[in-house]
Design brief:
This protein is mainly β and 466 residues long. The protein has one domain (21-448): YVTN repeat-like/Quinoprotein amine dehydrogenase (Methylamine Dehydrogenase, Chain H, 7 Propeller). It is 7% helix and 36% strand. The protein is built from two helices and 33 strands. It has helices at 2-19, 450-464; strands spanning 53-58, 68-70, 73-81, 105-113, 119-128, 146-147, 151-156, 161-166, 171-176, 199-201, 204-209, 216-221, 227-232, 243-246, 251-255, 261-264, 271-275, 287-289, 292-296, 305-309, 314-315, 328-332, 343-345, 348-352, 357-362, 368-373, 386-388, 391-395, 400-405, 411-417, 427-429, 432-436, 440-444. Strands 14-15-16-17-21 form a five-stranded mixed sheet, with no helix packed on it. A four-stranded antiparallel sheet has the order 1-33-32-31, with no helix packed on it. A four-stranded antiparallel sheet has the order 2-3-4-5, with no helix packed on it. The longest helix has 18 residues, at 2-19.
């Protein structure tokens, strides 16, 4: 009978996981930032007072990597310093001198139970002195992990290590990517840290490494960690995560960078197209909606927004004074965000500037429909917006999550204090908004999902039938 009960539990857990709303990489599937489905998501809560939370879990060290979700597990990474009070600076400022002389660190990958917030496992991937400095706002765990429900992949660029675990916390492999030294290209001593996140596509883990010297794009076998292909890139440092989109005719791997925005074949690394005319510093991740690829950057004076048609070939750079061509559906030379990745939700394309000014555009035509400062006050914003249930969520470095109604009119629904700075982008799963702060991971939402109680019910029925 014990075997029957165990089988029932396993089957129910598998069924629950398959029904769960997954958020497998930075900004979820395809980096869209959008959670689809019928689940209602929260509007008002207070993270500082633990009102409206399902759980609040301390996370050691500091990390700006975002949470990812598969089934009933949330995965995060962090860098724990032997310094008693490691810190990152927050707010709007122009000082970008890197943090120096840091002590020994331990780099962790953690699994959290989505229903309870309890730590399921915590693995130290490596320990040692950081091999690069970091931006004053940055950390040595800024790359978001990726998962396919069987593997959990984490990248620690300051150590040049790509690591893969199974979902029980067993280390499957480690790969040396080489030191990923990203920083200010005018002065190599200004090391700001690598932050582009790995993504999983089919049997590959893909890494974009735009660094001080010898930039590259590479794919590694998900099962073994062995390098499958590597494409050299003539690029200076960038910080955006690549995106793969599978269309009707082909798949395209899109990478944002300074000299060119490029499209590649994700299975071979062969370049398909390129688009010039970008900012000197690029951070936002490409996103796809309405059969268009949206790529932005916001380092002055060039702050472009491009909406690119799928299927492009060759050099599709716009000529002087051109706003469109065969493969560029629409574009703007001003308005691109510097740090937050934009979002398309429904018919509208939204950007959020570092100072909290939100602009909404018609996603298909580029016509701007509004521009407003969040809550009339703005603030400092690095995290990217996410969306679900006709709501947009904006997390500020000042420690607040603003909920804005989606649509052609800017309407603030709630301002939710969290009690600590927010730099990571939230995840959304089964009606929960999962927010990472400087010290805690928050599970926001009132009621536990049915998936979490299904195993208990199955066990009760099995016992009754013995």
């Amino acid at each position: 009978m014990k075997r029957i009960i165990s089988l029932c539990l396993c089957l129910c857990f598998a069924a629950s996981a398959s029904r769960a709303q997954n958020w497998p990489q930075f900004r979820g599937a395809g980096a869209s930032g959008v959670a689809t489905g019928v689940a209602k998501t929260p509007v008002s809560w207070d993270g500082e007072k633990s009102v409206g939370l399902r759980w609040k879990t301390p996370i050691p060290g500091i990390g700006q990597s975002s949470p990812v979700v598969w089934g009933n597990r949330v995965y995060v990474t962090t860098a724990v310093s032997s310094d008693a009070k490691p810190a990152a600076r927050y707010g709007l400022y122009g000082d970008v001198e890197p943090v120096k002389d840091e002590p020994v660190h331990k780099w962790h990958v953690m699994a959290i139970d989505k229903g309870t917030g309890k730590v399921v496992w915590d693995r130290v991937t490596l320990e040692g002195l950081p091999k690069t400095k970091r931006h004053p706002k940055g950390t040595h765990a800024s790359s978001t992990p990726a998962t396919d429900g069987k593997h959990v992949v984490a990248l620690f660029g300051s150590q040049g290590i790509l690591a893969c675990y199974d979902t029980n916390g067993k280390l499957l492999w480690k790969q040396d990517t080489g030191l990923l030294d990203a920083g200010w290209f005018y002065d190599p001593d200004y090391q700001w840290g690598h932050a582009s996140s790995p993504i999983i596509y089919k049997h590959l883990v893909i890494v974009q490494a735009d660094i001080q010297k010898n930039s590259f794009l590479a794919a590694y076998d998900l099962k073994t960690g062995k390098q499958v292909w590597k494409t050299v890139r003539d690029e200076i440092p960038s910080w955006g995560t690549p995106t793969v989109y599978e269309g009707k005719g082909r798949a395209e791997l899109i990478a944002n960078a300074t000299k060119f925005i490029r499209g590649y074949d994700p299975l071979t690394g062969k370049e398909l197209w390129r688009l010039g005319g970008n900012s000197e510093i690029t951070t936002p991740t490409p996103i796809i909606a309405h059969d268009l690829i949206y790529v932005t950057a916001g380092y002055r004076p060039i702050q472009p927004i491009y909406a690119i048609r799928l299927g492009a070939t060759g050099d599709i750079t716009l000529k002087e004074k051109q706003e469109t061509n065969e493969f560029v559906a629409w574009s703007k030379q001003r308005g691109g965000p510097y740090m937050p990745t934009p979002i398309v939700y429904g018919d509208y394309f939204y950007t959020c500037a570092n100072n909290g000014v939100v602009a909404a555009y018609n996603a298909k035509t580029g016509e701007r429909v509004y521009q407003e400062r969040i809550a009339g006050k703005g603030g400092a914003f690095t995290a990217s917006p996410v969306a679900a249930d006709d709501k947009l969520y904006f997390s500020s470095e000042d420690g607040e999550v603003f909920v804005v109604k989606a649509g052609p009119k800017h309407e603030l629904l709630a301002t939710n204090p969290m009690g600590e700075p927010l730099m990571a982008t939230p995840a959304i799963s089964d009606g929960m908004v999962i927010v990472r702060g400087q010290h805690h991971l928050f599970g926001i939402g009132a009621a536990a999902p049915a998936a979490n109680v299904a195993p208990a019910k199955a066990a009760s029925k099995a016992k009754a039938g013995k």
